[in-house]
Fold this sequence. Notes:
Blueprint: E1 2-3, H1 8-11, H2 21-32, H3 36-42, H4 46-66, H5 68-73, H6 82-100, H7 106-119, H8 131-146, H9 154-177, E2 183-189, E3 201-205, H10 210-220, H11 222-228, E4 229-238, E5 241-250, E6 255-258, E7 261-262, E8 278-282
Parallel strand pairs: 1-4, 2-8
Antiparallel strand pairs: 2-3, 4-5, 6-7, 6-8
Amino acid sequence: MTVKWGEEARLAGTLELPPFPEEQFAKLLAFAGVDDQAKRQMYLDSEGLLEHAADWIKAAYDALSRYPDTARALGWESRVPEDELKIRRTFFSAWMGRTIGVDTSREFARYLHLAGRVHAGYGPDRRFVPPEWVSMAYAYVLNAFASVVDKSRVGLWAAYLTAQEEVMRRGFEAAMELKKGRVAVEFEALGIARPALKERLEVRLVHGTLRELLEKVFAFEPALSDLALEAEPVAVEEGLWMEEGFVYRLKPRWTLLVGGRDARYLKGLETRLKTGDRVTLLPPGR
Length: 286
């Protein structure tokens, strides 16, 4: 099937979603030339990077706590809570270790996407971190790496870190999309889908359709897409050329309830939602 986004796909009852984080990560790395051969070269820098990593992490949080804007974003205006600082350093250390090991895995791409959502205020502490500070943090790390790695490989490290930042930014943007619109509804996933989305989401909609809600939620949480959706390959018309793409539909026997009513007996994906509605995703065998 050949489609233009927003035409036949809508008529077929399918959803249009952005590439999964791992797909985006792989495409960016391929474009930047960070392939297996490049990774073998980057591994030569690992010993020197590991030698300095702990000092860089400590210095980064010292700088964040001293600078008024970042201290305010982290809620550290009056004091730096040591227990929270320890947790943040732990996660930064885990990220640093995986980065020094040039992790390009699917799981790491999902982790970066999640980090972007956390920065948008969807983490345990609901803390919002402006994207410019994330970009500056990446610049700080690249500058630190450049002081140690062989000059011939600085470009590879810059490309690798930039690809990471872009995947994280997509997660941030997917989270911010949940806050755009006047129609405020709730979405919940039950049964085997519950671990992928443990809490109800408040989602704001511009157009107020079930389709818009689902496209926002599934872009926000790829793990939910893994469980509930199946892909249908399509040839996507992009200007003067064609590209392979996918549209998505709910797997058989998965059900969507709008205020307790099965959406199949309403208007399907075109069902109109109003503020206060709750949409429930039910897997088969519940």
